[in-house]
Each structure stands twice: as structure tokens, then as C-alpha cells.
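Its record is quoted verbatim for completeness.
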Amino acid sequence: MATLCLFAKQFKKINNYSIITNRKEKVIIMKCPHCHNENKYDNLTCDFCLAPLPMTKEREEEIKQKKALERKAKFAKSLTVIIGMGAALTLIVIFVIVYMIIRGL
């Protein structure tokens, strides 16, 4: 925690949430009530002791929204890869057909 605070402009502590703001982004860290380990805000369980982290309605909604955005981004990335592979395969087939036509004449 001390190393994170060195680079942070602002550090606030609200209940079990530690909010660290640096130059680029806002990082929210959740402390485990059992072992006091720092976890990412969207973790459902502690990384160290696997105890369930406290859940509020607001936090639950934020996690759902973040996971939905991650799913959309992953789908868009995989769709781009599939389209690229299809285009490459189409070009290969066209080159083979053209080569066979030229070679056959």
C-alpha cells in the first residue's frame, strides 16, 4: 500500500474501500475484512484467504456493468479476428484458383 501511495495524488479510505487516484486512472481497492489483504474492487472473494468480500447493491451493479462491457469488448475482438482470418482464407483461395487457371493454359 505504501508503494501505491507514493505514486498517488490522492488517497481516501471509505469503510472497506480504499480509493487511490493517480495521474492516469482511478483505482479502487477493497480490503478483506478477515485478512486485510488489498483486492481489486470487482473481486467477489479475497485473493489471499478466499473469504467472500462485502457486497452492496451499488457494488453489485457496477460489477455487472463492468463484466458486460468486458464481454462486449471480447466479442468485438474475436469477431475482428474471425473476419480477418476469413479475408485471408478468401485471398488464398483466389490466388490458388488464379494460379491453376494460368498454369492450366
Observations:
- The longest strand covers residues 26-31.
- The two ends are 74 Å apart (CA to CA).
